[in-house]
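Checked the freezer inventory, then went back to the computational side. Two predictions to log before the end of the day. The first one is the construct we discussed on Monday; recording sequence and tokens without edits.
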Amino acid sequence: MSKEKPSISALVKLIDDPDEDVFLHVRDEIIKCGSTAIPYLEKSWEEDYYGLVFQSRIENIIHDIQFEEVKTSLEKWNNCDEKDLLDGAIIVAKYQYPGLDEESIRSYIQTIRQDIWLELNDHLTAYEQVKIFNQTNLRFYFYFTLAYLCIGHLKNNDNQILKFFEPLSIVMIANFVLILFQIPLPGVIDGWISNNTNDSNIFVSGKLGGFQGGGPNVIGIFCAVYSLICIYKLLTANDSKKYLVENKANTVLLLLSLINLFFTFSRGSYLAFAVGLFSLIIFTNKYSKSFKYKILITATLFGVLAIFTYPSIFLKESNRTFLNSLGIQNIKLFTGVGGGNYIKSVYKDYLITLDKDLLSDQFNISYSESDQNLKTITNDATSSTPVKGYLKLKFDHQDNFLPRSVISFFFSDDGVKWNQLGSSHTNGVTIDLLENDSYFEVGGWGDGQSLGGQYLSGFINKVVIQTDEYKREFTFSKKNRDKDYYLLTPEFRNEYENNVEYKEDSIRLDRPRDYWLALPNEVNLSGKDFEVVIQLNLDSIPKGHETIFSQSSILRLNEEFNDQSWKWSIIDGRMYFFWIEEVISGYSNFVGGQSLRSGKLISNDGRFDSIITNFSLSQYDEITTSHNGFLTMAVEYGLFLILLILILIFYLIFKNFNKANHLELAILFMFLSQNITNDLVYSPDVAIYFWIVPFYFLANILQD
């Protein structure tokens, strides 16, 4: 060792020699020394600053030494009769981390293995066994390892990544059969998902869920990818029209793939296909720049037109934004809740409302006793308690520039600081309320507006109606009767003449079928943004269906009954907004209700408060991951790690961004765009394909 040190040190000093031949000779001699030279190189890089060229040469030599070490070790590993994948993975990791502590890694893997072994037993079904594995990080190790092995095979052969996607042709044929015969499949495999309708029209009777399980989004991305591959073959052919006619297999498979894609009704898959197709067209040499610009403009206009023509498809109310917001609240920078623990951790407040035995038996989820003690307050504990405060309805006729209306509900103690009840609601279209000039009604009355003869019971202090151009405050003292407000009989709008209870400048709603509280209609709310604020003091939170505020219609079905334009109701503590498009159809439209987005109004020490709505088994399908794969990973493994992965992916894209990789780039862009709205990295079959492309790009860089 004493003889070796001076020779390596001397060689290192010669690295900055301006003569290229001298440098190459020195470089070769240092590399022959192997890993023993690395400490000297690193020390010289830190202490002996001879310029950027010197440092750059040292870095390259270190990488070369590490690469040779890894290459030699991998060759020995490959020649062994028994290949341990963990050994292979450690060897590869040492390229970047030569000082890697092998023992700590092997110890950690052994711990995971032991944990799984303790959970597994002969009485578990295959699904339960897979579920146990999924609760560990092993699934991602498997994805990465398989993707790496695939690329290794690819690099040793013809280097055509296209061949890994060719077997999807069988998947396309099989799923087309599902559509053709509308075949549902048992268990966790969806097959054809029926809409439970007797309609024979295939376009409305259901959607494609796929053979492999995972639902429309999973099969949708496969259909999108294979459609793109068929189109790629057309674009790269010398004569696309001739190829289309002569290669009938590709043409038929393209049609089948597009049909399958359509019947998934997966908006994320549609978007992914559009992204991939556009990327492919941009990279191809077949079309001029002017044609590509026309394609870009046409695609943009088509997208905008689709949104405004079919807003209910693209802008309808969805749980996904809400579920993503819950996931974001659970993100930590360096720590996560652990693989497979997303649902248990993020949705605890919902799931804990279920019976603990049911949770354990059906979903293999359990909570500690301390968690159980935090269980949401029950309905019975708050249903009969008096409560006072403010309620507000906010109607946004057009959500910014989007063609949809948004309805939100709020509560307050003082009318100044507001808390939203649940989240905002929309059916994805613009709601044009029926125009009328008849009365506003507070609390509903006896014509069926409040179903089952139920009604608001309590005192009303104040009502505020406000638009951008109009604001009116109504108070209900005895002296303001027949000035600010009117008390009318239910059927004929005659003035109510009997005694009415007043208290502290408020009026009591006490009926049914005695009188209804009417406000003069001084503004047409149709086509406007507006707010309605009510200050009240109720005997209790309504249990049944009770109308809070409504707008009468001048339209009559007959001489006995009036219909309404819209009404704001409360049903068992949950807010609803009902409206009428045609008088004949009645209240056929509403938003709000018992979705995960709906909070429940309760009484808490005499004030309005809210709790998470009681959860039912029918809603369990709504609670999955965040519907964003990287967000889910960030919650389970920490934000920092996921940011590193994303940075690496985009670095690989940047380094491989050329026309030679245009198919691979298009496919990766498709996977990334679809993963924003769906957790594809958590679906085993998709995840393997997902990671193949980044590993392929990485292999290109290492090979270069």
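The second is the one RB wanted added to the comparison set:
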Amino acid sequence: MKSIEIDLHKELKKYFGFSQFKGLQEQVVNSIIYGNNTFVIMPTGGGKSLCYQLPALVLEGTAIVVSPLIALMKNQVDAIRALSSEIGVAHVLNSSLTKTEITQVKEDIKRGVTKLLYVAPESLTKDEYVEFLNSVPLSFIAIDEAHCISEWGHDFRPEYRNLRNIIRKLGDIPIIGLTATATPKVQEDILKNLEIANANTFKASFNRANLYYEIRPKTKNVESDIIKFINLFKGKSGVIYCLSRKKVEEITQVLQVNGVSAVAYHAGLDAKTRAKHQDMFLMEDVDVVVATIAFGMGIDKPDVRFVIHHDIPKSLESYYQETGRAGRDGGEGYCLAYYSYKDIEKLEKFMAGKPLAEQEIGFALLQEVVAYAETSVSRRKFLLHYFGEEFDEVNGDGADMDDNSRNPKSTKEAKDQVELLLKTIQDTKQIYKSKEIVLTLLGKINAVIKSYKTDAQSVFGAGKEFNDKFWMALIRQVLVSNLISKDIESYGVLKITKEGKDFLKNPTSFMMTEDHNYENTNDETIITNAKASNVADEVLVSMLKDLRRKVAKKMDVPPFVVFQDPSLEDMALKYPVKLDELANVHGVSEGKAKKYGKEFIDLITRYVEENDIIRPDDLVVKSTGANSALKLFIIQSVDRKLSLEDIAAAKSLNMDALLKEMEQIVYSGTKLNINYWVDDVLDEDQQEEIKEYFMDAENDSIKAALKEFDGDYDIEELRLMRIKFISEVAN
């Protein structure tokens, strides 16, 4: 198969400017390239889009991407077009196109130019489109936001339910399902509905370690609290979510009056205004968008620094999805939600008129939100547990990044109560949800308890010395500790796990944390995010951002399509002054360097000259950190006297990155005999001259050496000699 010949790392660098895949990306890309049905569960910011974009760009034929929102499709298409010289590389096919535009799209597909075709599910119901797509080579079909298929998902869309029937009409084509949020229940639903039970499933960690989670009580001064908070993030992008259109408008006006540049976004605005407001946000003409969830999936801006929930969402999945809009570039991301039980009661009222099955699902999801808001255990642990993932709240990545972890509440021994709880679940035959278990413990009757004659059992009323809040809090904590679980099939029914059975046989200490009581307000302090990004040269970053905004406006694309924030920050660390140096900056592909690079290089060059900046010697791509296997490979290859260029190529490194690894090896005390290579680069006298310099120098700084030799030697030559020197003299 052709795919075997594809050098994925080379293609990744060529199209996206990255030297390394992130997390599970490489495995997913391989699965798709080999024509397998593939199911990807990857959180927002995890690089989900690249998983299907890269295979689409390198495989023959056109990939169909089903997406629920026109705005999102537009963003994706803009981003793909920025990577290629061919504008037809990505197209949208939906109701917003004219006949002429549709003809152009079809022409580009026939010519084999279009690699990605974004469609709404409704477009695929049209016979003419299905007929046309059947006549051209297709590589695969990707269903983005696949949770829309599931009634248990936070964003169920009936038109998604019919996708499998449509795909059948397109013949035997690999199906790729992708979602950024899915509980075990939703995952099962997606696989079943798409009929891809055999799919290669990849589930990335849902842990977004750079996000800080905080819940505050919602007081009557919530607007002033929000303004105070935003003022701490002056000039940074943020999103505020409200549940109603009316509230969106109110909050927007309050912010504008108080000097915050903000726009509103909700479904009640006409399409033109919505698009305008979204573009203003993307183009950095305004800092804040106040929105309903209509804005949720339509935004793909990597440098959102805070997400505020004025109203608590209807499900934890919505909450996770919406908070996931923050810090997608790995930088600071503050997620603040204001909580009041009154809001929950409002949401319950909204559900009253809906069908019974829908109500049941809605209430179950809402209870999870209440549990999350009121819990005093690690919020990260609670969230990840909800998505079926374990988390070490002491040593895990981002363990201290929530208000409960920073300000732990007092604990008390609850071994006996846990034992009673488990015994109650066991004695009632594991058929009840939390509500019935709590009623049983309190000795209260409802119709369900009466029908099963639970009121005649010994556990009935055995826990009435504690109130319902205590028992609900204990159930949540016992769930998170994995002593009980919620059944997937009949969602919400409590079952005892193996660990729970072991606890019953041999009860051990269980320290219960007191839950928050949000009826009283807590202190006003704002904890700043400890993981905020550090930039070497803030002034230059600000200048680069201004230039990016101008270039973006000229090109009519969002600023992040030109270069993302981490790329600008890397430029401010490395000061690249040549195009080939720019290609070594994190996230800058060859195509991007050629397309946008000149103005940025000119600016940095001027800045370096005007400020007498000595550029660092390590113009390398930020790597994920050296590992021992790589070091061993380098040592063995040098021993075999292999060309350094060949060693670098074998591990998809550039020369600078290889030298960095070699420097780490010799500085950690291991000899590297690179004479065979140095002798080809420098003659004996030159080597002696540099060696003498290092012998007498105060330190081993390459900057200082460059200054000393005043252009006689380049950085690479000096670095090679430094490696040889340290290896011979120090080791």
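For RB: Confidence is low (pLDDT under 50) at residues 520-535, 617-626. The two ends are 48 Å apart (CA to CA). Let me know if you want it refolded.
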